[in-house]
Design a protein that fits this description.
alpha/beta; Rossmann fold; 10-stranded mixed β-sheet; 40% helix
Length: 266
């Protein structure tokens, strides 16, 4: 068995005696928090965070922390807080105003949550940015939805993203915020970014560095549906095109079959 097959086996949960984070606990906790996070996205996050955590054991790599830009009531941050508690890494929240009750909610889940009350456009000039260059494992961008703010947030997260880190961008391809995908595609095709999209679905886009794309694309193709079904989510993996300029999967509500599209590798 090749090294990547061993990595993927771990990423898909095979050979593990138990999961570090109980999906039911994560789901129940976020259900009690006001917000619009879809349960399908919660399941996708859980699957990706487990797959991402497996890379920490690879030679030359190590564990990394989590970041959320824009927290409101802490619904999505609660998912990251559960993994922070289980994996022993830190979660940092960036928002100009962080409510006391939001802090209470997250602190009750994990003791490893910190808060940075700044405008996210200033993140690149902060001490936090300097200390976390190329080291973060997962970043969720859900701050100001303006074109310029999204561009700035992606740039800051790219600076801090570790080699196999993942960036999740909220409200992607929704009717209310057409400027978000416009900003993402503009940034990615600027010619200076090392990021690429590997998965889109349920109002979120998932980005990684180009060096990590093969790993995440293979995990999505071979392990994601299995992981989601183990969490009770029956979805369809979509691949309708393959092009050097854009090559990513989509995940959608069940379409009557597990795979949709004629561009899935066999």
């Amino acid at each position: 068995m090749s090294k990547i097959e061993n990595w993927l086996r771990g990423a898909m949960g095979q050979g593990r005696k138990e999961m570090e984070v109980n999906f039911s606990d994560v789901l129940d906790a976020q259900r009690g928090i006001d917000g619009s996070l879809l349960e399908e996205s919660v399941a996708i996050w859980c699957a990706l965070l487990r797959a991402q955590q497996n890379t920490w054991t690879w030679e030359g790599l190590s564990s990394g922390d989590y970041l959320e830009i824009g927290v409101l009531n802490g619904k999505s941050a609660s998912v990251l807080a559960h993994f922070s508690r289980a994996y022993g890494n830190c979660l940092t929240i960036v928002d100009p105003i962080i409510q006391y009750r939001t802090r209470q909610t997250l602190d009750a889940i994990s003791p490893r949550v910190s808060y940075l009350e700044i405008v996210s456009e200033n993140l690149r000039f902060s001490e936090y940015h300097r200390k976390n260059l190329r080291s973060l494992s997962f970043a969720h961008i859900d701050g100001m939805h303006r074109f310029s703010a999204v561009m700035s947030d992606i740039a800051a997260c790219e600076d801090m993203l570790g080699p196999f880190g993942v960036i999740s961008i909220d409200d992607f391809h929704t009717d209310l915020f057409p400027q978000i995908p416009a900003a993402v595609y503009r940034y990615l095709y600027s010619g200076v970014s090392d990021l690429c999209i590997f998965l889109i679905g349920f109002n979120k886009a998932y980005l990684c560095r180009n060096i990590a794309k093969k790993y995440y694309m293979r995990f999505v193709r071979e392990g994601l549906l299995q992981a989601l079904e183990a969490m009770g989510k029956k979805l369809t993996l979509v691949k309708t095109d393959r092009n050097d300029n854009f090559n990513a999967f989509a995940i959608a509500a069940f379409q009557g079959e597990r795979l949709y599209g004629n561009e899935h590798e066999t």
